[in-house]
Design goal:
Layout lengths: L16 E7 L6 H10 L7 E7 L4 E7 L2 H4 L2 H6 L4 E7 L14 E5 L2 E11 L2 H10 L9 H11 L5 H9 L4 E8 L4 E5 L8 E5 L2 E5 L3 H6 L2 E5 L4 E6 L2 E6 L8 E2 L1 H6 L5 E2 L2 E2 H15 L6 E4 L5 H11 L7 E3 L12 H11 E3 L1 H4 L3 E6 L6 H12 L4 E6 L21 H4 L2 H8 L3 E4 L2 H8 L6 E2 L1 H4 L14 H5 L2
Parallel strand pairs: 14-23, 17-20, 20-21, 21-22
Antiparallel strand pairs: 1-4, 1-10, 2-3, 2-4, 5-6, 6-7, 7-8, 8-12, 9-10, 9-11, 12-13, 15-16, 18-19
The chain binds iron/sulfur cluster.
Length: 475
């Protein structure tokens, strides 16, 4: 996946997944789950899946493509049941295939379990190797299957205790939504790297990666699942369990910069408003004489509006996105890749011509897209093109579920800001500072993971899992 054979014209970091869950006795929940997945579609477009339990057994449908392509009316109607888990996927680990689509449904001695995961385990391979040594056979390359095997092997009499124990072996980023025949479970890793929120829909509990899914289905936000917390929802109601002590909270800051939908709230803050603050701060840090500000649609528009406000300049729709290109497609050559940008974006000549343009984007990954957009603006008659980026340079890869490309391909890791400016052929280039980025969120510096900006990784990646692991899983 990395390395550019499969890369959308956006040349962006990619979120791994979106998850949703609902427990609604007496209701048919598949349709609601379907709508919630529509709302989470931006978090993954490669596959979609829904698992539904009627209290006795779990049925599942999943397929490659967008939610609308995988689920039509009759498929949804066939689902009977009141507990559901839904998933949309972009793969960073494991190949993009139907086998790896989620939720993953396993049947074992004690029943069935469907798991949807957002994130990436840093010790997934190590656990997988050890499980294989004691006889586990894997059908997929997903982290969800590792967790499923762990739960099955660590079988205590109490299922909830098994899950809690399995979670103690995991290191990395994870937000899980799981269902059994009679329960819905939501889990967030001890750092809270990936988001997961709890809501209520007509007295019934729902879980979602982002609050925009609650708005779509008419649910009310209750609270975020705490880092290191597992919530179990069943006929008794909701119970909260702690499987790990809360570490320093470290939500991925890229959720605010780029991944999350602008109408979602994270940490109680609206994403659009935070992006606007990022833009205002960017204007303070890198002022420049110009005529108009434009943003690369869609994710940079909020930040661009902040830059415009901060610099006292008009925001103009200088770039228009074709919304009907579809998702990731194979771009085998540089020539076709460059055509990809033109298929996806176009400059509005009448807006750009003769103007000194500030072009705002949320990040630069490999720089090829930025170069083409700068060129596009110049071809449309821009007198000057000043690029402003509403995040700091990314200098390291992400190990927590975000496809950041390898360090070799990351422009920020390979070049200075001046070299990047020359590479993308901009008149000036300004990145937001790490301090400015954090200040714009209005939150504490310790609230976020910012490892890819500072190489300040949360885990010692060489550390092995604890010694008694092998004994436990060979039981
Ligand atoms: S390393 Fe970067 S992309 Fe990965 S979780 Fe941390 S902030 Fe997000």
């Amino acid at each position: 996946m990395l390395g550019g054979t499969l890369m959308f014209a956006g040349d962006k970091f990619k979120e791994e997944c979106g998850v949703f869950g609902i427990y609604a006795p007496g209701q048919k929940v598949a349709e609601v789950t379907n709508y919630a997945l529509y709302a989470l579609q931006h978090r993954g477009q490669e596959s979609a899946g829904i698992a539904v339990s009627d209290g006795k057994s779990i049925k599942m449908e999943k397929g490659m493509g967008l939610v609308s392509e995988v689920f039509n009316g009759s498929k949804i109607d066939r689902f009977k049941g009141h507990i559901a888990a839904g998933h949309v996927r972009y793969s960073t680990m494991g190949s993009s295939s139907l086998l790896n689509a989620q939720p993953l449904l396993i049947r074992y001695r004690k029943g069935s379990l469907a798991i949807g995961h957002n994130g990436n385990l840093v010790n997934g391979e190590e656990i997988r190797d050890q499980l294989e040594e004691v006889g586990s056979i894997f059908q997929t390359t997903t982290d969800s299957e590792i967790v499923a095997h762990l739960i099955a092997r660590l079988e205590n009499d109490d299922f909830v205790e098994s899950v809690k124990e399995a979670l103690t072996f995991l290191r990395g980023a994870f937000a899980f939504v799981m269902i059994t025949e009679d329960r819905l479970i939501g889990i967030r890793d001890p750092y809270g790297l990936r988001p997961l929120s709890l809501g209520i829909l007509e007295d019934n509990f729902v879980l979602a990666s982002e609050t925009c899914a609650f708005d779509t289905i008419g649910a009310q936000f209750i609270r975020d699942i705490e880092p290191g917390e597992m919530v179990v929802i069943d006929e008794e109601g909701i119970t909260s369990h702690r499987f790990a002590k809360k570490e320093k909270e470290a939500l991925c800051i890229f959720e605010f910069i780029y991944f999350a939908r602008p109408d979602s709230n994270l940490h109680g803050k609206n994403v659009h408003l935070v992006r606007r603050e990022l833009g205002k701060q960017l204007a303070r840090e890198h002022p420049v004489e110009a005529d108009i500000v434009t943003g690369v649609p869609d994710s940079s528009i909020s930040a661009a509006s902040g830059v415009a406000e901060g610099m006292g300049l008009p925001y103009e729709m200088g770039l228009v996105k074709n919304r009907y290109i579809g998702r990731t497609f194979i771009q085998p050559s540089q020539k076709i890749r460059s055509l990809g940008v033109k298929l996806k974006l176009n400059a509005v000549k009448q807006v750009i011509e003769g103007k000194r343009v500030i072009m705002v984007d949320d990040s630069i990954v490999r720089g090829t897209t930025s170069l083409q957009i700068v060129q596009m603006l110049r071809n449309a008659g821009a007198k000057e093109v000043h690029v402003r980026i509403s995040s700091p340079p990314v200098v390291g890869s992400c190990y927590y579920g975000i496809d950041t490309s390898s360090t070799k391909e990351l422009l920020g890791a390979q070049k200075t800001v001046e070299e990047i400016r020359r590479f993308i052929k901009a008149d000036t280039l300004g990145y937001l500072s790490v301090e400015g980025m954090i200040a714009s969120t209005g939150m504490n510096v310790d609230s976020f993971c910012k490892a890819c900006f500072e190489l300040s990784y949360l885990f010692d990646h060489s550390k092995k899992i604890r010694k008694n692991f092998f004994e436990k899983i060979s039981r």
